[in-house]
Amino acid sequence: MTDKKIKGGHMAIIENWYHQIPAFTDVFTEESFYMFVVCFVAATICVVFILSRFITLKPVD
Question: Kind and range of the H or E element at 27?
Fold first, then answer.
């Protein structure tokens, strides 16, 4: 009886999403994960460097 209350409403939606999202091991192998991390870090550094050229912080008077 308690199971039916938990399965209703929001929990059913969450369980549906949970079953549709692939597992981490389905998306990445060890090598592809490391490649993703290196590319992500490199892209983040590039974006920060480019944005630092256009954004300047000025002290508040």
Answer: helix 24-27
Tokens of 25: 């091991």
| Measured distance CA(27)–CA(37) in Å, rounded | 14
Collect all residues with Cβ–Cβ distance below 8 Å to 36 and sequence separation of at least 6. 28
pLDDT in tens, 2-55: 555 555 678 888 888 888 998 888 989 999 999 999 999 999 999 999 999 999
Residue 28's CB: how many other CB atoms inside 10 A?
Answer: 15
Are the CB atoms for 36 and 28 separated by under 8 Å?
A: yes
